[in-house]
Design goal:
Helices cover about 0% and strands about 45% of the residues. By secondary structure, the chain is mainly β.
Length: about 500
């Protein structure tokens, strides 16, 4: 694997043609996705700035153009009418090439539309001459011509009572309150994750610190909280966050997580009172930095999309100088004391002609959707098996244990072994339904109509192109059409 120098990682992009040869090479990869958003070149990670504006969905993602490395980050812009088919618009926010407030990266943030303008809030990653980090919360205005205008000064800088790890501003308007709020992931001086709250009567000016969010019972839960958000879904407040460097039961060696807490938010006291424990959003191997769309009118649900990857790990396509994709957008609702995640109904537009599969070994299209209705008893689905039905990724339900598990240790290309190769989730009411989306290098499994989700990257060889099922199931399969065109727009 390539060892990147600091100069290579933080090289400024001056001409799109500098990337054309890399784009041509990357586009030939057998692991390029068919219906998932992925970067044109290099590395993509956090989605952000997710918003409905001007009769279309806007989404941005972190992009390092040169290769599969966390270096100089940009905001890349894509749009969609239906959250299924996406169009590249090219890079939107670039780091300042001089000594500006974002001279070493335009980091994650959020967006808020007002009139025909869209305001982009982001973390400016600044490094001084001694390479010391300084974080600034910055603002840009995106006009209807698609060109961003950065404000010359940041809204505010790092709070001195916390470490330099202060990032990922989420802008929000709370119903019934006059001011706007912004929450930011942060780290205390004694290395505990937390959230800072800022407020202002105006989107563009007058921001001041309101205080630190109090979350009783979670004062020592990881050493940094990334990508925080507070959503109101179906009468419930939901705190989403990514606690870092903490080990959780059932999550193998993974130390970076994406999850949520249901509870009640009191903006007067800046207290989020939990109604239960921390739940992971996704029980699979590769999901992080989930972002919910701003500016949707239906308060009974939210729309979420996440990075299909993790910090501090590597993937087989790193050697091809690209990495990362986004999950399918999901509709979030609350059922009982849990978030329910379901694929959008619009995804059915990608279906080809339905195939009724046989018992035994069946062909597995490169891009497809598999749906299983399951009767009581043990169930097993093997994806990416060889000709004899061996190997691959095993999805299994144990009726006696009332537990579903995903095991990717049977794949030829094994990676991130220190994170663990098996993920499990209890199913107290048994297994009744599976909906599985297979793409060139990923699998997303929706269990019992969204009660649980397993998202995983996987990189099958050309021999691993079949699947099998066991147990009392009724199986349907649809090949899926392409939904993303990786046109070379920089």
């Amino acid at each position: 694997m390539k060892e990147w120098t600091r100069e290579e990682r933080y090289r400024y992009l001056k001409d799109p043609q500098e990337l054309y040869e890399l784009y041509q090479r990357v586009s030939k990869s057998v692991y390029r996705q068919t219906f998932h958003v992925q970067s044109v070149t290099g590395l993509m990670n956090d989605p952000h700035g997710f918003v409905w504006h001007d009769n279309q969905w806007h989404l941005f993602y972190q992009w390092c153009p040169w290769g599969a490395v966390h270096g100089l980050k940009h905001w890349y812009h894509i749009v969609s009418r239906d959250l299924v088919s996406w169009k590249n618009l090219g890079v939107c926010l670039l780091p300042d090439q001089n000594d500006g407030y974002d001279n070493k990266g335009v980091y994650s943030g959020s967006a808020m539309p007002i009139g025909d303008k869209m305001y982009l809030y982001y973390t400016g990653n600044h490094r001084d001459a001694d390479w010391k980090r300084h974080a600034y919360t910055c603002l840009a205005r995106l006009g209807n011509d698609g060109w961003p205008e950065k404000y010359p000064l940041p809204l505010f800088g790092s709070h001195p009572n916390y470490t330099e790890h202060q990032r990922d501003p989420k802008i929000m308007k709370v119903e019934g309150r006059d001011e706007y709020y912004m929450i930011i992931g942060a780290q205390t001086k004694d290395l505990r994750g937390c959230i800072l709250v800022y407020s202002s009567p105006d989107l563009q000016h007058g921001w001041s610190i309101a205080g630190e969010l109090n979350v009783p019972g979670f004062s020592d839960f990881g050493d940094m909280w990334e990508c925080p958000s507070i959503e109101h879904i179906g009468g419930h407040d939901v705190l989403l966050l990514c606690p870092q460097h903490i080990t959780l039961p059932g999550r193998g060696g993974t130390q970076n997580h994406n999850g949520y807490i249901l509870g009640t938010m009191d903006w007067d006291t800046l207290t989020f009172t939990p109604d239960g424990q921390f739940h992971v959003l996704d029980f699979g191997f590769d999901s992080y930095a989930a972002a919910c769309a701003n500016n949707i009118e239906d308060t009974d649900k939210a729309i979420l999309i996440a990075w299909m990857g993790l910090p501090d790990v590597s993937y087989p396509t790193d050697d091809e100088d690209w990495a990362g994709c986004l999950t399918l957008p999901r509709e979030l609702t609350v059922r009982g004391r849990r978030l329910i995640q379901q694929p959008l109904p619009e995804l059915k537009k990608l279906r080809g002609e339905k195939i009724i599969t046989n018992k035994g070994v069946n062909p597995l299209p490169k891009a497809c959707e598999i749906e299983l209705d399951c009767r009581p008893g043990d169930v097993a689905v093997k994806l990416f098996t060889s000709e004899n039905g061996e190997g691959g990724m095993l999805v299994s339900f144990d009726e006696a244990k009332k537990e579903i598990s995903v095991d990717r240790s049977g794949m030829t290309n094994r990676f991130n072994l220190s994170e663990g190769e098996v993920r499990t989730r209890p199913l107290e009411n048994g297994l009744s339904h599976l909906r599985i989306f297979v793409d060139s290098s990923s699998v997303e499994i929706f269990v019992n109509d969204g009660d649980a989700v397993f998202t995983s990257r996987c990189f099958p060889t050309k021999e691993e192109h079949l699947f099998t099922t066991e147990g009392e199931t009724f199986v349907r399969l649809w090949p899926l059409k392409a939904a993303v065109k990786d046109s070379f727009l920089i």
